[in-house]
Amino acid sequence: MALVLTRKDGESLAFSFPSDITEAELKTLLQDGITITIRRDARDHIRLMIEAPDFCSVSRGELLSNS
Fold first, then answer.
1. What are the coiled-coil residue ranges (predicted)?
2. Could you list the residue range(s) of the whole structural domain that residue 52 is in?
């Protein structure tokens, strides 16, 4: 299942991976990668559909800067 986020100009995403990533998970990441599909909506926002392995964490940039 894909994660769908809306971003405005200048907003960011961060991808992170566990420090204990297994060899099998790393192999999956290298073989399958991360897919990002970009769409622009009527309000001139960008919608991102992100498909990544379950062990990949995707965070909005503003959440990281507040922690």
1. none
2. 3-65
| Cα-Cα end-to-end distance for the chain | 27
For residue 14, the one-letter residue type is A
- Report the amino acid identity of residue 26: L
Report the candidate in 52, 35, 40, 51 with the shortest Cα–Cα distance to residue 6.
Answer: 40
Tens of pLDDT along the chain (67 residues) come to 689 998 888 889 999 999 999 999 999 899 999 999 999 887 878 899 999 998 899 988 888 765 5
Number of domains in the chain: 1
Question: Is 0.90 topped by the overall pTM?
Answer: no
